[in-house]
Amino acid sequence: MPEGLEAEIYRRAAERVVGRAVAAVEVDDRQAMAGELRHALPGRTVMSARRCGKLVVLDLDDTVALGLHFGMTGRLIVDGFAPIDELVYASGRDDPAWNRLVLTFTDGTLLRVNDPRRWAAFTLDPDVERLGPDFLDLSADLLGERLRGRRAAVKTLLLDQTIVAGFGNLCIDEVLFQAGVAPGASVAELTHGQLGEIAAAARRHLPAMLERGGSHTGVLTPVLRALLPPCPRDGAPLQRSTVGGRTTVWCPVHQIV
DNA sequence: GCCCTTGTTACGCC
DNA sequence: AGGCGTAACAAGGG
């Protein structure tokens, strides 16, 4: 599913359209800003492709920003090139009926978002100020600042995009596994050293997963999550539970509450 | 045909 | 007031 890593993969693909001018816009009528998008984009040139957490932002003519959010199953296709062929929990097909946004450029090329489940969302001038700092830029001090005064489970809070932006279910479980911190641990109980372990695990493992292809390429693969073999680190029985309303896989031996 | 999956938001409660 | 927990949401796949 598209987490911040997939958003970065999509952002890199979207860089191909920098310098191109929008000729036509097709957008799903069920998008809240469908009318505004059809009106605001044609004639404008893409100046840059940024990423804020899970959001890809295209800046057009320095006057408008187009935010692309991919939900659970949204895929980006640029000039027929899909940087991610298959998403975990998504269909492998590319049915034209699932196109939710199609930008046609003046040279005839295309940027498409294809999403079977309609959870992709497109916004003009998205409010990125409400997002927390990016999950690829964490430090112990920054995490401490973002979590100060809170007491909920660390996984629940890291899933909150206003606290840290970019984490999804798979990346959180992977980082906490590597950091040796239990997902259900209250942040009020975490030491500064444990926050440092989380930040270090994010800085070390997330870029490696990005280059391997995304959030499903950690030690806790989707197959492992389904089959629950012994912990690859210490051989203890892996545990599956629910934290923050999400399926959570963790090792009760080396991940400390 | 029920149940599982995810990210986000809307509620009710404390 | 605001943190916290839970449910609802869409819809394809098993």
List the defining traits of the structure above.
257 residues; alpha+beta; N-terminal domain of MutM-like DNA repair proteins; Helicase, Ruva Protein, domain 3; 2 domains; 4-stranded antiparallel beta sheet; 7 helices; DNA-binding
Can you walk me through this structure?
By secondary structure, this protein is an alpha+beta fold. It folds into two domains: 121 residues, MutM-like, N-terminal (N-terminal domain of MutM-like DNA repair proteins); 111 residues, Orthogonal Bundle (Helicase, Ruva Protein, domain 3). The chain is built from seven helices and ten strands. It has a four-stranded antiparallel β-sheet with strand order 1-6-7-5. Helix 3 crosses helix 6. The chain is elongated. The chain starts with a helix and ends in a 7-residue tail after the last strand. The mean pLDDT is 90. The protein binds a DNA duplex (14 and 14 nucleotides) through loops.
